[in-house]
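REQUEST FORM: STRUCTURE PREDICTION
Request ID: SP-0412
Submitted by: Lab K.M.
Chain count: 1
Length (residues): 238
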Amino acid sequence: MDRLFFDNNENKETIIFSSSEQKNNQKNKSRKVYIIDQSTVFRIGISAVLTNQNHYELAGEYSCYHQLLKHKKPDDNGLLIGDFKFIGCKEIVNITNNCINLRIIIFLCQSDVAKILTCINDSTKIKGFISRNASIETILSGIETVHNGNVFIDPVLASEFLVYYNTKKNIRLKNSSLTKREKSILQMVSQGMRNKEIGGQLFICERTVKFHISSILRKLNASNRTMAASIASGLGLI
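STATUS: Completed
RESULT:
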C-alpha cells in the first residue's frame, strides 16, 4: 500500500508518495533517460543536470515523441523527461500504452496542473511533476525520487493538486444534481456543437440552451463550456 511522507528540501515540504513495490537496490541500478522537448536549451540543461549522476544513462534527446519512436522503442524501465507544453495528454497516453514500465517526469506551470490531471487517468505512468521554474536541487530531487520508485510533486505545484482534488470531490457531490437534459447538452457541447445546433437537436430555443449551459458551468465549477466538457470527460460524465 502506498504511503505519503514529506522530504524537507530548501525549507519546503516536497510531497513524495512512496510505493510498497520499491526495492532497496533500485538506487544502484542504472536507468536510461530520454529527454523530449522542442527547446534545445531545455534538453541541454537537463543533460547537464544528469552529467555527474552515475546511475543515469542518457539514451537520447528528441524534439518530440514521434522522433524517438523513429529511432528506437524506449527501454521499458527507462525514464522519460519532457515539458507538458510539448508533450500533450494524448502523447502521454500513447507513451504509456507502448512502454508499460516507462516512468515519466513532466515539467509544467501551476496553470497546467488542472489540465493534465483532467485529461489523464490512473493508468498513466507520470511519476514526477516539476515546476518549470524549479531549482537544480529540486529537479535532481524529483528525478532521484522517481528513479527510486516514488511519485514526486514539486512543492510549488502542491497547492494546485489539492485545489484540483478538492474541486473534483465537490463536483462529484454536485453531479447527482445534473439533470438528464443537462447531461445531454453537456454531451453535445463536448462534440463541439453550438447553442443553435443543440437547440435544434433537442427542439428547444437557443435561450433555453444558454440557461442549461449556465447551470452546467455552475455545477462543474467551470469558467467556460470548453472547460466544462474537459472536466466532464475527466470525471467520466460523458
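NOTES: DSSP finds ten helices and eight strands in the chain.
Reviewed by: T.R.
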